[in-house]
Amino acid sequence: MSDIVLKNAEEIELMRESALIVSKTLGMLAGEIKPGVTTLYLDGLAERFIRDHGAEPGFLGLYDFPNTLCMSPNAQVVHGIPNATPLEEGDIISIDCGALKNGFYGDHAFTFAVGNIDPETEKLLTVSKASLYKGIEQFRTGKRVGDLAHAIQSHCEKEGYGVVRELVGHGLGRTMHEAPEIPNYGRRGWGKKFIEGMVIAIEPMINQGTKRIKQLDDGWTILTADGKPSAHFEHNVALVDGKPELLSTFQYIYDALGIESEEETPFRKVRLAV
Ligand code: MG
Ligand code: MG
Questions:
Q1: What is the full DSSP assignment across the chain?
Q2: How far is the CA of 149 from the centre of ligand 1 (A)?
Q3: Domains of the chain, first to last
Q4: Could you tell me the distance, in angstroms and rounded to a whole number, from the CA of residue 72 to the centre of ligand 2?
Q5: What are the pLDDT digits (tens) for 100-135?
């Protein structure tokens, strides 16, 4: 990977705009996810929504990916390709979405429940999402990549979950994947120091069972080696005034689903006009 590209205040505002288009896309999808709906249908909705907001889908054509969304149900970890199989009651579906506007990418992800899911899977989602905020908390001047990585890893491993090793978060900007790599496992005090103006995508990929993964012969889909479910949550975060500032938000999802949450409040300077 190349050198870290720091962003100034103006660039961070443009990145917020791109991130919020992805956030709104996920919020729109939240209202559409139900048993019987196909991931290909949702993909079409997302592409239209992104274009209607003056942006381009960030994943479509990137490394030759064929669609707007990565759609990874149940045992799929990430990079699933949308298809015509209907979602079923009790499934979970990880949706990763990217948008490009004003030359900057937004890139974040959420794992949704389809109807009612079993309590064990619900817990996987709760713990995985909480680990994302544990990681974000460490994105401060003077801390290092290993501090963030360790916070995510320890939060998930104490529940017995598998933390995927082969896939990692990343710097974000005019390209989708910039330096540094942001793994979800690591040792405190190790790795690159965080500095003002960094913008990163933090994205724990957490398996209910083994951390081991395999890949389908479609060349994309990553799934758990033991067939147990996997969760993926991703936020885009800028380092401003020494502290983490969220550029993306799950608030549109929560509004669509009628969920009350204060989880983002510590990491947000301005209140969102929803
Ligand atoms: Mg992503
Ligand atoms: Mg990413």
A1: --------HHHHHHHHHHHHHHHHHHHHHHTT--TT-BHHHHHHHHHHHHHHTT-EESSTTGGG--SSEEEEETTEEE-PPP-SPBP-TT-EEEEEEEEEETTEEEEEEEEEE-SS--HHHHHHHHHHHHHHHHHHHT-STT-BHHHHHHHHHHHHHTTTPEEPSS--EEE-SSSSSEEEEE-S---TT-SPBP-TT-EEEE--EEESS-S-EEE-TTSS-EEETT---EEE-BEEEEEETTEEEESS-SHHHHHHHT----TTGGG-SS----
A2: 17
A3: 9-267 (3.90.230.10)
A4: 14
A5: 999 999 999 999 999 999 999 999 999 999 999 999
